[in-house]
User: Which sequence fits this backbone?
């Protein structure tokens, strides 16, 4: 199975790199801490940044231009309605690179419902999100739906020092005043590694198509994430 997953990842990244017309490679790195307070509530805090490599050939120049597109702080609170159903609210503060449409910052408020469907080995999940994006000089409402899958590459459960596979597809729809409404799609595939009870590391690739109903923009995202899961002393194991 592991060879098959590696082959899938190789084909996916090759296609994504070929499909980009302007060759903009994007790296997103994040560190996240999830704190489970009790059986009903959990809180997540994360820091992230995005770095962009632009091919200067499109501007008649040579070489690559490297830019920090944004840095951000995220905070989520999640209420566990049922072991298979969770509701969350979140806040994001994002500092954007000033040349991006003169949007120097973004405040984002998020409402989310997540549902988990498990089989013996595979975990399937659906996520619905509504986001209010407040920029320096504009506002946008975005709706998102993501379907994802993950499973261990060894055995029937994920144990310490083991790899797991993850994949997802997400559709987005954004409404912005004085701009045409836009659709987007995000296909993700990757691998994760569980170091211990609280720590895991993920590497994934996302092929993102924005505004695909008109003149689409295609980009390949390389994403790395370090995750820590912490329990309250009052939360049973």
Assistant:
């Amino acid at each position: 199975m592991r060879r098959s997953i590696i082959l899938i990842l190789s084909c996916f990244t090759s296609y994504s790199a070929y499909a980009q017309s302007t060759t903009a490679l994007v790296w997103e790195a994040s560190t996240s801490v999830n704190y489970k307070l009790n059986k009903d509530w959990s809180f997540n805090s994360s820091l992230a940044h995005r770095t962009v490599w632009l091919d200067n050939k499109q501007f008649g120049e040579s070489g690559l231009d490297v830019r920090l597109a944004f840095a951000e702080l995220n905070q989520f609170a999640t209420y566990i309605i049922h072991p298979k159903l969770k509701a969350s609210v979140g806040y994001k503060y994002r500092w954007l690179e000033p040349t991006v449409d003169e949007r120097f910052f973004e405040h984002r408020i998020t409402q989310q419902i997540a549902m988990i469907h498990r089989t013996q080995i595979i975990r399937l999940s659906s996520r619905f999100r509504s986001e209010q994006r407040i920029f320096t000089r504009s506002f946008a409402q975005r709706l998102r739906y993501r379907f994802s899958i993950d499973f261990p590459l060894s055995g029937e459960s994920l144990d310490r020092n083991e790899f797991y596979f993850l994949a997802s597809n997400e559709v987005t729809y954004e409404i912005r005043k004085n701009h045409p409404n836009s659709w987007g799609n995000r296909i993700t595939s990757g691998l994760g590694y569980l170091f211990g009870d609280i720590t895991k590391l993920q590497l994934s690739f996302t092929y993102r198509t924005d505004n695909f109903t008109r003149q689409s923009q295609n980009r390949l995202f390389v994403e790395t994430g370090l995750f820590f899961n912490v329990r309250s002393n009052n939360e049973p194991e």
Observations:
- The longest strand covers residues 64-82.
